[in-house]
């Protein structure tokens, strides 16, 4: 499997963060939007993959479907979630750092999921496994210098969380 250089994902993250800012400011608190990443790596994964399968250093969190951004006809792409939480609850800033430093499966392109991707993790939490259902998880989608979106894995409700709150962290990477 071809590994993509990290600077590409930094640029992708900036684009997604600016797009997500508009979405975050115009979206009701519940439910979260479902929106796939705008870009995916060039190499396709095996067509037999399904949500919950071990692949690419974690578990397949979701696969892009026809009509979704990131879908490429005849190819398999989606999002991988780390197999376990990083830490036991932390601030948003530390969550960003934990994801950047994570090297699951030997990959270095791990990051916090966007608000929309976090909701997809919530929807598929049983297939992915290992989530703390009575806790909130951080997304990488910021509202302002003090707040970022988080989501309850008990109720599915999305909120603006104060960045100094302690929430759980699950790293993701596109494939």
Task: Walk me through this protein's architecture.
Strand 4 and strand 5 form a beta hairpin. The model is unreliable at 1-42 (pLDDT under 50). The protein has 175 residues and is an alpha+beta fold. It is built from four helices and seven strands. It has a single domain (6-174), classed as Mannose-Binding Protein A, subunit A (Mannose-Binding Protein A, Chain A, Roll). The N and C termini lie close together (10 Å).
The structure class reads: alpha+beta
Shape: globular
User: Care to count the β-strands?
Assistant: 7
- Rg calculated over all Cα atoms: 15 Å
User: Which strand order does the major sheet show?
Assistant: 1-2-3-7
The major beta sheet can be summarized as: 4 strands, antiparallel
Low-confidence stretches: 1-42
**What is the mean pLDDT?**
81
State the name of the first-level CATH class.
Answer: Alpha Beta
CATH architecture: Roll
- End-to-end separation in angstroms reads 10 Å
Give the fraction of residues assigned to helices: 25-40%
Helical segment tally?
Answer: 4
CATH topology: Mannose-Binding Protein A, Chain A
Fourth CATH level, the homologous superfamily: Mannose-Binding Protein A, subunit A
Number of folding domains? 1
Strand content: 15-25%
Order of helices and strands: HEEEHHHEEEE
């Amino acid at each position: 499997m071809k590994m993509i250089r990290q600077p590409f994902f930094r640029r992708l993250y900036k684009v997604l963060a600016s797009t997500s800012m508009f979405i975050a400011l115009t979206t009701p608190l519940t439910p979260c939007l479902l929106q796939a990443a705008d870009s995916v790596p060039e190499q396709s994964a095996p067509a037999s993959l399904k949500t919950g399968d071990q692949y690419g250093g974690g578990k397949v969190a979701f696969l892009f479907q026809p009509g979704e951004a990131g879908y490429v006809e005849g190819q398999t792409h989606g999002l991988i979630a780390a197999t376990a939480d990083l830490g036991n609850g932390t601030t948003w800033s530390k969550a960003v750092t934990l994801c950047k430093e994570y090297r699951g499966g030997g990959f270095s392109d791990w990051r916090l999921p966007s608000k929309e991707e976090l909701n997809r993790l919530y929807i598929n939490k049983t297939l992915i496994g290992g989530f703390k259902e009575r806790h909130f998880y951080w997304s990488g989608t910021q509202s302002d210098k003090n707040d970022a979106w988080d989501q309850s894995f008990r109720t599915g409700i999305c909120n603006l969380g104060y960045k100094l709150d302690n929430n759980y962290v699950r790293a993701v990477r596109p494939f």
